[in-house]
Design goal:
The chain is of the alpha+beta class. It contains 19 helices and 5 strands.
């Protein structure tokens, strides 16, 4: 390489000496990266260290070529940096760690320049003349690296979303053979052919804030900490669908996690209606589980919250479906009672529901409602008068409870979010 005519002779000597120790400097830089950036030390990618060595050597060469050739570093000099940034995405190295490693390498290079200068004052002064070029290499190289990394990350994210969507559609179509990226994704999320699983479906209960997308919400809803894997969470048109392994702690733990996720989202004004299926025996049962989850979610109507079928009674489930025929079968006087009491605040309906929950014990119901027992008796008498039902008969009480549910006056008691 021809020396640059404008370069201070001592600086030229320093650059030549640094170039002569290139192998040592590269090794020192790579070792420093492994010692100072835990993500590199913890990586299981066997190719990573070789990639970093090649990249460090390339950047050092750009700097020394700029010094000795008298040409400032250009974007075109960092083709390998773009390639390496793309590889770091697939190797699981974050952008912050990648840029940290880049800076560590340049610090090692600068120390090599100082070592080559020795203690001679003129040589030290000459070394300082190289700072500008080194800073340009750091600034331009970091910029190219960051741009390439973000571009590769966005591409990887789009590809990951596509694989997730395709996998979900395959599961809903009852396909059972998965290879390549789909098979790898199933293993990653803890789902196998015979994995006991739940399916949940979530939809916004109102408008999403401008700063939030359904995909953002899916990342939160998809967390089920008690399971063997995180589960598969996919945005499908206007809903989020989650296929989740049943946690070792049981269904209650999965539902509790789902409710916690909804609470976290509500803090950002993201309100979801979530339906959760019963437990199913494996991947081939995903279509049935999804249908159940849709029924549960629709049972919430326009309300937010989590409605989990495993936590419902058979009665709750039977009156959960939107059935117009069932509504038409409600007697006119009962229909009128429900409508009028709802308009008045629903006190009689609340008393009826609690009375049934207390096994038709008015005293216990009064205590749970914080009422005087005479008030409870008065309300029950008013219900009987207005509906023609005898609340001492289980069949009449059941008729009223069914009417209340199918007319949408009160969701199942287990449909809350806490």
């Amino acid at each position: 390489m021809e020396p640059h005519s404008d370069l201070h002779p001592a600086a030229q000597k320093i650059a030549t000496a640094a170039e002569a120790t290139m192998d040592t400097l590269v090794d020192l830089a790579v070792e420093a990266i492994w010692q100072q950036v835990p993500a590199y030390m913890d990586s299981h990618d066997e190719q990573l260290r070789r990639d970093v060595t090649v990249h460090v050597r390339s950047v050092f060469t750009v700097f020394l070529a700029g010094v000795t050739g008298g040409r400032p570093a250009r974007r075109a000099d960092f083709v390998l940096t773009r390639q390496q940034a793309t590889r770091r995405v697939s190797q699981g190295i974050s952008l912050a760690d990648f840029l940290h490693a880049f800076r560590i390498g340049q610090l090692v290079l600068w120390q090599g320049v100082l070592d080559a200068a020795g203690e001679e004052p003129l040589a030290r002064e000459a070394a300082l003349s190289l700072v500008a070029e080194l800073m340009r290499v750091i600034e331009l190289g970091s910029t190219v690296a960051a741009e390439a990394y973000v571009e590769a990350q966005q591409h990887a994210l789009a590809e990951s979303d596509r694989v997730r969507r395709d996998l979900l559609e395959d599961l809903l179509a009852r396909r059972s053979t998965f290879a390549g990226p789909k098979g790898a994704l199933l293993r990653t999320v803890g789902l196998g052919p015979d994995t006991r699983l739940l399916v949940a479906t979530a939809a916004p209960a109102g408008e999403l804030p401008h700063s939030y997308t359904l995909r953002d919400a899916a990342a939160v809803v998809g967390r089920v900490r008690g399971g063997r894997g995180r589960g598969l969470a996919v945005v499908r048109q206007d809903e989020i669908v989650c296929v989740t392994p049943v946690p070792r702690a049981g269904v209650d733990a999965a539902v509790a996690d789902m409710r916690q996720a909804c609470t976290e989202l509500a803090e950002h004004r993201v309100r979801l209606a979530v339906g959760v299926s019963t437990v199913h025996p494996g991947l081939l049962a995903v279509p049935e589980a999804y249908s159940e989850a849709r029924v549960a979610r629709e049972g919430l109507g326009q309300a937010e919250g989590v409605l989990a079928l495993p936590l419902l009674t058979t009665f709750d489930y039977l009156v959960l479906r939107d059935d117009e025929t069932a509504r038409r079968l409600v007697r006119p006087e009962v229909r009128q009672f429900v409508a009028e009491d709802l308009a008045a605040g629903g006190a009689l309906i609340a008393t009826l529901v609690e009375f049934a929950a207390c096994d038709l014990n008015a005293k216990t119901a009064a205590e749970r409602l914080h009422l005087h027992v005479n008030t409870a008796y008065y309300r029950l008498e008013r219900i009987a008068e207005r509906t023609g039902c005898d609340l001492r008969k289980l069949t009449d009480v059941m008729e009223l409870l069914i009417a209340v549910r199918v007319l949408g006056a009160r969701p199942p008691l287990t449909a809350g979010t806490s």
